[in-house]
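Bumping my old thread because nobody answered last time. Still need a sequence for this structure:
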């Protein structure tokens, strides 16, 4: 597979049995799972494994997901999931992410947009991420449509 990933981060996955719906296609929630799996893989490759997030007591929180579907994905299709940053606040506390999901024959199957921020797992408040995590955020490829988000006054620092 060679989907047009531009300079986006990309991972390949297999559409497995547990991700299918009753029609034999990839279930709608499975698209969100694939998007999250690609993002988790990116951060793990940049020094932020799930263990590191737990150690820091900081984690991503998604406030809104939207999915636009274009093509069906079937059992055991190999799919490529890309990851790019659509928007980011200057302190790194809030973001909008974009994942594209590509089916075999380089067919664009879906796009997922996820808006969220970083949650302090102890105080349950939105926080600016620690410096090393902010640095990893700058490594996320930028979408062609990237915009800066305004910084919010109610965001705590870590």
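Sorry it took so long. Here it is:
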């Amino acid at each position: 597979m060679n989907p047009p990933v531009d300079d986006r981060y990309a991972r390949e996955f297999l559409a497995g049995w547990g991700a299918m719906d009753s029609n034999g296609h990839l279930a709608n929630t499975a698209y969100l799972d694939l998007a999250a799996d690609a993002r988790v893989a990116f951060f793990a490759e940049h020094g932020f494994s799930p263990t590191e997030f737990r150690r820091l007591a900081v984690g991503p929180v998604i406030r809104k997901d939207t999915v636009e579907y274009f093509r069906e994905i079937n059992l055991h299709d190999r799919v490529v999931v890309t990851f790019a940053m659509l928007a980011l606040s200057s302190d790194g506390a809030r973001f909008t992410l974009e994942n594209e999901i590509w089916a075999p024959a380089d067919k664009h199957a879906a796009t997922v947009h996820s808006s969220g921020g970083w949650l302090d797992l102890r105080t349950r408040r939105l926080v600016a991420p620690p410096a090393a995590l902010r640095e990893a955020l700058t490594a996320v490829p930028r979408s062609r449509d990237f915009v800066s988000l305004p910084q919010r006054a109610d965001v705590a620092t870590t």
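Strands lie at 9-14, 58-69, 78-89, 94-103, 107-120, 125-128, 142-149, 156-157. Let me know if any region looks off to you.
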